[in-house]
Structure formats: C-alpha cells, structure tokens
Amino acid sequence: MDELKTTRLREFMRGAATELPMMLGVVPFGLIFGVAVNAAMMPAIPAQATSSIIFAGASQMIFARLFGEGAPLFTIVLTAAIINLRHVLYSASIAPFLKPFSRKWKFLLAYLLTDEAYAIAISHMETLPPNAPLLRWHKQWYVFGAGFTLWLGWQISTAVGIFIGGQIPPSWSLDFSLPLTFIAIVVPALRDRAGIAAAAAAGICAVAAAAMPLKLGLVTATLLGIAIGMLVEARFGAVKMEKAS
Amino acid sequence: MWAAIVVIGALTFTYRWSFIILFERLNVPPWLRGALRFVPIAALTAIITPELVLHGGSLDLSLSNTRMIAGVVATIVALWTRNVLATIAIGMAALWALNAFLK
C-alpha cells in the first residue's frame, strides 16, 4: 500500500477507534428506539428509514412517540425541526475545520454530523495546532471514521431494536444510555470557569423551561448557556488549562 | 408519514450543512468562534439535566430519584477517569443497583 492510502486509512481508523467507546451508549439507545417504534405501532420500514434519512436519535424518538399519540404530521415536523436546531450550531462550530475539503466531502461529513461524531471530531480538531495543514494530514478521513462508525452502529442497533423491541423490558432503563453518553462527552470538556457556567446555565434553564411548548426549552437553554459562557469569559477571561504556549 | 420523514431528513441535513457551506467564503469572526466553543457543552447539558431531575414532567430532587443519583455517579466517574466506556458502564450499573435496592 502506498503512503497516501496508509495515511488515509490510519486517520480513518483513529477516528473510528475514538468513536467506538460511544457505542456502549449509542447501541442501547438504538434498541430503545425500537421499543418506542413498537409501542407506537409504527411500521418497520419507515421506522428504519428515519435512521438513514433523519439520522438524529432524539428527534427519531420524539417522532415515534408523537406518531403513537396520533399527533398531526405538522406538529411532528415542527417538534423535530426545533429539537434538531442544535445541529446548526454544530455546523457553525465544525465549519472552520472543514473549510479546506472538497464539496463532496463537506456533503458527506455534514450528513454524518451527529452529537457523538461531532463531539469526537471537534475535540480532535481542537488538539491540533491552529494552522495545521488539515488537507495534507487527511483529517477528513478522521471525521469520516468517527461519523461512519456511529452511522453503522446506529443503523444496526435501530434495526435490531425494531425487530426485537417488544421483548426489551422497560425495567432495563436502556433509555438512560442517552444522558450517560452525553455526560461522558460534556464532563471532560468542562475545563474552565466559563464552560462550567455555560453548562450550569443551560442545565438549569432546560429544567425550568421543560414545560415550554414544542420543546422550545432545549433551544432556549442552549442559547442562554452560550450567552452566560461568553459573559463569564468576557468578565474573567479565558482561563484555559490546555495549550498554554 | 413518509412526507414527514423526508421533510425532517432534508431539514436536518440542511442544518448540518448550512454553516459548513456558508463559512466556505466567509471568515468566522473571532467573537463567534468564542461563542461556538460553548455549543456542545450547552446543548448536551440541556438534554442531560431534564432526563435526570424531571420525573413525569415534575421536578424530583429527592434521594429516591435513582436517575439523578446515577447521573451524579456517572459525572464523578467522568471527572475522575475521563473515560467514555467507564462513565457509561458505571452509570448504567449504578442505576440498576439503585433500582434493585430502592424500588
């Protein structure tokens, strides 16, 4: 194998390997999506199609729940549109790092931009030096490795979940794997006062605003968290413990 | 139902694609770059906390709320080990153990 292919493969494998531990949380959540689909009496084919066409777990979960409750399609679309709004922020956050890559790559990596893949990709990109030659280092393959691993895990686990969903007892609390996965992502990212303030504000606001119609509480809490984080950073400065050079 | 799936899918893709394409030509202003640093922290915490402290729509901060306790355990493990696998595994085990003993 020539050097180019080796580099690409190495980046892909590194991305995939970093993503792999997330599977411990993602697979149970895929299974529990299957439980929700069965409870909602949603047919298997469209249910699995949400995994490949929408490919965003939390909104798929709400889709199944609202479908089961007989909610109008308009309500389902609007709710999913709001829950998934955070992906706009992920897009903005990862955009500077994807700038050097071709349109085709951007298209593919945008499709694969889920919570878990984004978390792995952004924390890797942030460890690289500011002017790193991302194109020459084939970093798109790292992001692809992480994204593809998650994609494959999600497609398989939701398919299995839809198939056996009726037999998973609720007492297993598999849905708890979603907040656990996010705790595993967020907590190590809390490195300074501003970050902790952003998390605290968003967390408290999300609980207080949970009763807001159409799940708007999630977006409100996220924006408030970002604002508080910026305020604290402006007031106290960024006390980053990393990259002290 | 298919229409809803396709519309949500197209919308979600557009979200994910939007700024990746927009910032192709534009440079991200430094203040925005600063703000975006808080995105994953704020968005994910906003999903986590209601899952831990809301029970059937109402606030439950009592010690019998096993999800909250297991969430705290997972947070401590994450702080201590910074390990994804350990955080999820111990958090889940904590919830099962608490449910077995307290319910």
Question: Structural class from helices and strands of chain A?
Answer: mainly alpha
User: Which structural category do the helix and sheet elements of chain B fall into?
Assistant: mainly alpha
Residue runs with pLDDT of under 50 for 5 or more positions of chain B: none
Q: Count helical runs of chain B.
A: 5
Strand content of chain B: under 5%
How far the N terminus sits from the C terminus of chain A, by CA atoms, comes to: 38 Å
Any idea how many domains of chain B? 2
The oligomeric state is heterodimer
From N to C, what is the helix and strand string of chain A? Answer: HHHHHHHHHHHH
Series of secondary-structure elements of chain B, N-terminal to C-terminal: HHHEEHH
Question: What does it look like?
Answer:
The complex is a heterodimer of chains A (245) and B (103). Chain A is mainly alpha-helical and 245 residues long. Chain A has two domains: 3-174, no CATH class; 190-245, no CATH class. Chain A has twelve helices and no strands. Chain A has helices at residues 3-19, 23-39, 44-53, 57-68, 73-83, 86-98, 103-111, 115-125, 139-164, 177-189, 193-208, 216-236. The longest helix of chain A is centred in the middle third of the chain and has 26 residues, at 139-164. Chain A is globular, with a radius of gyration of 19 Å. Mean pLDDT of chain A is 91; it is low at 241-245. The relative contact order of chain B is 0.07. Chain B folds into two domains: 1-37, no CATH class; 39-103, no CATH class. In chain B, strands 1-2 form a two-stranded antiparallel sheet. In chain B, strand 1 (54-55) and strand 2 form a beta hairpin. Chain B has 103 residues and is mainly alpha-helical. In chain B, 76% of the residues lie in helices and 4% in strands. Chain B starts with a helix and ends with a helix. The longest helix of chain B is centred in the first third of the chain and has 21 residues, at 2-22. Chain B has helices spanning 2-22, 30-36, 39-53, 66-81, 84-102; strands spanning 54-55, 58-59.
